[in-house]
Fold these 4 entries.
Entry 1:
Amino acid sequence: MSTSVTTTCRDINELLPASQLACKLLFQECYKAGITNIFITETYRSQETTEILI
């Protein structure tokens, strides 16, 4: 898992299994609704990054 303050992790496989499943189900529902342009912006945010953003 990426923990760098400057590196953004977008890999769904880095999520916990329940979160991976939730993303996959969301994608399925979006595709059914005709929404095909989906982009994950961040799957993990380190404590350091969170503190910088506050």
Entry 2:
Amino acid sequence: MSAQPYTQDLDGPAGTTDTESPATGGEGASRSGCAGVGRAFGTFGELLQGVLPGTGEHFMVTSPVAAWSTATFAWEPDAGTVQVAPAHKRKAARLAQRALRAAGRPGGGQLRIGSELPEGKGMASSSADLVATARAVADAIGTRFTPADIENLLRDIEPTDGVMYDEIVAFSHREVRLRERLGTVPAMTVIAYDEGGTVDTISYNHAAGTRTEAETHEYARLLDQAREAIRDSDLHSLGRVATRSAELNARHNPRPSLPALRRICRDIDGLGIACAHSGTMLGILLPHDDPDTALKADLALGACASLPGTTMVYRSLGHRDDWSYGGLRSPEGAGSAGDLRPLRPFRPFAPGYAPATTA
């Protein structure tokens, strides 16, 4: 059964007072009816997420993963609506509306989104949908939105991961603002464990508790350590930062499986534990190119089989990857397409949860 599209009325009240002015191209009138494509990768939670001292600013250090959302947008200059499928992607329809208006283009169009990212798990599925949508609209109307332009388009819609930047970044997700570009590190294998359920990012951010002064100062130190580890491509130090961030998160957002995963990580000499701070996922980090990683991954998967949740394997994005790949072609220098996709599920998924897997 095909999904019924959701319609976003371009004359409706949402987003009608945009003041953004992203770069516009001169090809719009000649591209009537053209379809554009946009892609954005997701994340495996965050390498670090917390609150900084003094300002109380909430921030994250992104953890880009090799799984993508892909949006296609067919611009219809004479249309009065944006229709989206699947129908529940309403925020993407609103984003398409804002993007057309900010670029000075009339009409609406047909938006379709496909994703390799599970929803409500802390893998930036919604952020990836929105960034992919902005890029698809730009492609359809013959213009380009910079990452800062996309930040402006997203700011009033929801707290957002920094997936508009093709590297690891420190990002103020509530303000939807870049703090700092941090660079890239070698790719990692992630033994991803899902504790179950879903988390709504907006509700989570509204309900998130306060952090103590001591915690905010520790987060500042961890951010300094993450910056240094990324600069030096030091995965062991980065793993320690991620583990500590997961422990601090568990003080306010209980993670029942964290002690067991930490034991498994120690037993196989893993790098550390990554956490979806506003999601349901935890992951054991391993260096992707290490010759012992395949054996360690199998040992971790076997150990996780005794836990009540579900387990799968992902690959982070690293130095030589084409971060815009989106599963449609093999990036030069990064191996086969299968090398970039999530590798495989290990246990049956819960009803209604079907992340992409390799064929």
Entry 3:
Amino acid sequence: MLSISYASAQQLNISGVVISSEDNEPLIGATVSVKGNPTKGVITDINGQFQLSVEAGTKMLVVSYVGMKTQEIRVPRKEKELKIVLIPETMDIDEVVVTGYGNFSKSSFTGSANTLRTDMLKEVPVMSVEQKLQGMTTGVQITSSSGQPGANQSIRIRGMGSFNASQEPLFVIDGVPVTSGSMSSGGPDAAYMNNSKTNIMSTLNPSDIENVTVIKDAAAASLYGSRAANGVILITTKKGNTGKVRVDLNVSGGFSHAAVDFRPTLNGDQREELLYEGLLNYATDNGMESPAEYASSNIGTYAYKPAMGYTDWRKELLRTATHQSYEASVSGGNDRSTFYASLGYNSQEGLAKNSSLDRYSARLNMTQKVGKYGEVGANMMFSQMNQEMNEERGSSINPFLCVAMTMTPSMVVRDEEGNYVGAYDGTSLNPLRDILTDYNRVRMTRMFSTGYAAIEPVKGLKLKETLSYDYTIQKDSRYYNPLSSAGPKSGSDAQTAKGFIEYGKLISSTSLNYVHTFAHKHHLNVLAAYEIESYQTDHASGEKSKLPSDKLTEPDNAAVLNSFKSATQAYRMISYLSRLNYDYDDRYYIAGSYRRDGSSRLSPNNRWGNFWSVSGMWHLGNENFMKAVKPVLSDVKIRASYGVNGNQPGSYYGYKGLYSYGENYMEAAGSYESSQPNDLLTWEKNYSLNLGIDLSFINRIFASLEYYNRDTKDLLYSLPISATTGFTSYLSNIGRLNNKGIEFELRTLNVVSNDFNWTSVFNLSHNRNKIVSLNGLLDQTIEGTWFIHKVGLPYHTFYVKEFAGVDPQTGYAQYYLNTKNEDGSYNRELTTDADKAESIPYKTATPKVSGGFTNILNYKWIDLTFTLTYSLGGYSFDKLGTYIENGTSSIYSSRYNLPAYMMNRWQNPGDQTDIPRFVYNESATSTNSSRYIHSTDHLRLKNFTLGFTLPNQWTQKLMIDKVRIYFSGNNLLTWAKWKQYDPETPVNGEVFCEAPAMRTFSFGAQLSF
């Protein structure tokens, strides 16, 4: 409310209150000043109220607050009550960029970074923060090899930058680097137990996140040295604010289906029709007297209708998954101390009947002023996850493999009495029984605590000590019943296994930061720091058999020890770092950083690495000659940066020549040489150039265009060597990769008013990845059956025989010969003999263009947010297709299912199709054929949120500040060029029968007190 009274003919006494449009809470510390005279102003108090005396005739007041849109308020002529409501400035070009070693305004940051605040991340129904970033920022590609809840995510920032070392970005939470990814990667139990499906970052409750900053270039990333080659993702958790204590409750629940129609297959009658046709064609081709009689007499062996009718295996093995979430937080503080505390419980079922994730989380963040110059604080997190996983490899109990290939409609689940039986005669195979009986479980417990103490003895000079400990333990347990057909199981006995992996990371950081302004125009920010990182991991796993009962599945109850493995590893790193930022008159900016890392993963002669960056910016918008165009071209910035960061070897002892023990040699402990020494092993080095321009038009349209070139040298690579040495590979620094690309982002304030606000964000990323060199001698290496690593081509390039479609007259699959002509060109003649065709590099998994389009709308008490993501120019290889399309004899003998698109096969001369004629005992095509390569082009409604906030006059009667009910969805709609599986495929493009992404529907309510 704003009231005006005349103190005299020359003065007006103005008083009022300023509140936020988001929650109608008072804004403490908002500035109210006279337009044109910013020195004539006041600050709102703890209740958001202010009093200001102005001269008579004053027409406008300016009201501003950090993170809110500045508004101009007309001074009324008569005494009246007004409400000054500020709305969030979601697209403020001067937003804060968090770097982990200090925060900077966007207008003064010389590097490349994107910051996503709470308003762009809220209510997206996911279990990990990585999934919230999809489509929200340029240069970031996020994929997953599994759609199971809590599964590990793959993140690529500006392409991939390594062959063998980590390709994942560094995660930093509240300024501290943390462990991320999968704990099972590379562990002895990873091959058969957890299989890298548990994501450590899923322990973090996304509701506790205030903002996420993605750092992509060297300007800030080089401060993290040997860990920042793949970019840095900085997460800032919520903290308390001064003012009234605030309590927030959030309750939601919903259900999920597969985001796409996962590998649709033929029904029982269609499958019988197709198999009958195959037999008929076979008999005809072999000149049998009565092909129809032959087909009719044999079809019952492969396709038949059981007495109880066809089986719908999708209905038996999969389900409509449900999820629920309960979260509560309390925050508040005063000018001396602040606090934020939260509790959360999240539960999400997977699509298969034996997959789920439960998470319990708690957080406490506190700050406290000490005397006039000191401050202490602590951030503490505890989380426990319980994960139930289904098999996803080539196993008979992989539910998605079952519905796509191995379980046909002719196979049964139960007999007439309801008892489980073998799916077909002569076997005990029954995936539903095994899925409900077997288990594969994970319990992950994480405790992450950070404490700091800072003192500012001289204004602008701050000494800070930070100490953090990140502890995680993952416990795995697995059981296979005696009849189980699980792929890893051997023999007819029940098998039980148990294991654990324990990580602990201690980090100490001591920093001295000096900030000062000279002569009002020279701004200086200098940082020096010393850091120590100590990391240790311990893991063990064992498997036993001969259990007395299916109720006593603890390994201690079993009689026979099948295997036991264990290991303890550790590494340490010491770092010295410095940074200098200088700007003159907010127009010319220059920054530099230097870091020196010493890692125990490298030999003493090669232990230290130097990483640095230089960057600069010209803020044209603040030049005098720009004033004439300010009404249209509001702001212009030109940025440039160049620097070096790196990657450590993934092996903790990769430079050493090691002996391994544990082999049984005449009933004594035997040893063998397990690795060769390499004292020359060193860091991978990443040289990154970034050029950018930022434009602002009419203070409503913000555009950013960036070009980057990223060279990775001294790549860590397992170089093949002669087996006569006793080894087949040798870890060394060879090869070079290059990533270059363009990123564009457009942010627009379409409508800004007290009642209606509409903001849009469009982003586009293009990255070109190529191998520059391998070992200097090799030009290419063939990887597996359908991949090639070749100089000049992207790393994930397919190497296949080129499918040329189906001959319309005969129905046979055709291929281009692709033999080399004398002039080096390819011979494009056709052949129906796949053995005569040559494999060639063909397509890549990396998309040419990807991005997203986000809209945030608010109208009075209604809010709407949605994000569309897209990808163009990428391809995938359907590994499963090589089983169910190639070699119809195996389809018959193994009684495989058939994909629905097989109904489009060639049948008569003149048919135009890419599915060959179906014939029993005749191979359809080669397994390494481009026939199995499909486009991943798609457009997806990634998330959608619609909320309704009840009017204040309703909620205040109940003593509630805010009540909001909402609907939120994830992966709601997908338009894909190839519709058999989810278009968001694994990084390398190879697709088998992993759990698909989920289409999630959530309904919830938020209450604030």
Entry 4:
Amino acid sequence: MAQVREAEDGWSTTYGGPVGVAALCSALQIQLAEQSEAIAAVRVAAIRELLKDHSGVEVAAMFGVSKTAISKTNRARTWEDPTW
């Protein structure tokens, strides 16, 4: 953000001007949301795998979070049939 605030006038011309910058930011935001969703699914699957051999309290201690956080994660969406 500081780079944009401190940039010289016309910096966005290279990127298609303000419209191009806004479009690029929108595309990147969509991509980031998709990646974030995939990462969350991996995290859920890993937590579920840990819960096969450890209690919710133990898993919570591993990550420094509450048992409630682990329970919520365990109930979240993930992909089908992860292989470890």
